[in-house]
Specification:
five-stranded antiparallel sheet; alpha+beta; 5 strands; about 110 residues
């Protein structure tokens, strides 16, 4: 199992988990969910639910991944499998993202 903190404007909004079977869970933190001033991180992950499950990486996070030669270079330099979407996300989405979301490896 691998975990990542999901930050929205540098505030922890939730946790993304990749389970050992390859499925994924995104869960809003209790404090984020209970604060009516906090937005959902995505239109596809509204705060009407606290927890979401998927057999595949959620499209919102998948769309943050590099493509083409950029993806190949990231994978080569970081020794990542081209199909390790969670690993690529952890590598590329922690510093320089378009938008307000960062993905940080959870210890």
């Amino acid at each position: 199992m691998r975990k990542a903190k999901i930050l929205y404007k540098n505030q922890e909004a939730g946790m993304l988990i990749q389970h050992d079977n390859g499925s994924f869970t995104f869960r809003y933190n209790d404090s984020w969910k209970n604060d009516i001033t906090k937005p959902a991180i995505s239109l596809t992950l509204p705060m009407s639910q606290q927890e979401y499950h998927s057999d595949y990486l959620f499209p919102f996070f998948f769309n943050m991944l590099p493509e083409g030669s950029n993806k190949q270079m990231v994978c080569m330099l970081n020794r990542l499998d081209l199909d390790d979407y969670f690993g690529i996300l952890l590598t590329t989405a922690k510093f320089d993202n378009i938008g307000a979301i960062k993905v940080i490896k959870a210890e």
